[in-house]
Amino acid sequence: MAWLGVLCLALLCGQASHAQAPTRLRAWNIHPDGYPVTEAMKGFAAQVARATQGRYQIEVFSNATLGDQPKAVQMLKSGEIDIAEFSSGPLSDAVPGIKVLNLPFLFTDSAHMFRHLDGALGQRFAANLQAAGFVVLGWYDGGGRSFYCANRAPANIRDLAGASIRVQQSEVFMEMIRLLDAKPVALPFKDVLGGFQQGAIDCAENNMPSYESTGHFKLAKSVYVTNHVISPEALVVSSALWARLSPEDRKAFSDAGAQSALLMRELWNRRVAQALENTARQGAQFVRVKDISPFVRRMAPLYSKYMADPTTREELLTIIAK
Ligand code: BDP
């Protein structure tokens, strides 16, 4: 009977070590604590842990401590990180069709954008992303991006001519700035503040929660409210991780992702209002664009280019149609 005891012990030990050794996953995030993306990712991590009885423990590394966004896109592909939240700018390097999401004035507002992303178009983007190594678990809100400047107060797109404007390292954004007769300067997100301090850039463009959370509003007080790009962000896991998950665990991750996207969108709307109020109280000046048509006309070469491009044409037509 001794052998039975040994066997039982081995099984128990096996169970115990299984219970004691959860799979630890690393999640990359660019934003600080309290930011809607961060809070939604933490919610995602907590729900995955609950739904898998602690077998998966996700640690969220915030503030881009693991590297900047273009690097993190590569890290997710190579399996150095397992989960991340990316904006559509850097993601379009991996999947060219995503470029349409960076085009100016494509979506009228976030509701319009989510009608597409929560439907057939979102599924098509997700399928293309999955083929490139990224499994989308939720579409987050990237809000509307506007320009803000340190040493000029634009009230017209002509006022941006000649300015050095920081953009994400992304082709469409750079082309957009060139069409405004300005100079695109691609800087990692965390270097933008230094760029303003050292006078390397005159302006940048972002949504209001990031304008506030980064402290850019302290140096670049003139906001030209254009909302020129309304774009999504995506909570993704690597396809390497996805391939290792059982069907039940995949469901747990998917449900948690969908839940976190709803939370994010709700937190986002509140945060936009707070950011506007807070930055205005601390001296930010807002000039709203009166008529977007001159801006849209300037962008004509961009629309023609992506309409002619077979990787983006279909997506572009789908969005324009409704
Ligand atoms: C923020 C996005 C973040 C981008 C950043 C940027 O949430 O993913 O990296 O803008 O402009 O709004 O780099």
TrEMBL record:
Pfam families: DctP (PF03480). InterPro entries: DctP_fam, TRAP_DctP, TRAP_DctP_sf. The keyword Amino-acid biosynthesis does not apply. Keywords: Receptor, Signal. GO terms for cellular component: outer membrane-bounded periplasmic space. GO terms for biological process: transmembrane transport. Residues 1-19 form the signal peptide. NCBIfam families: TRAP_S1. It comes from the Bacteria. One of its GO terms (molecular function) is carbohydrate binding. It comes from Acidovorax soli. This is Tripartite ATP-independent transporter DctP family solute receptor. The keyword Ribosomal protein does not apply.
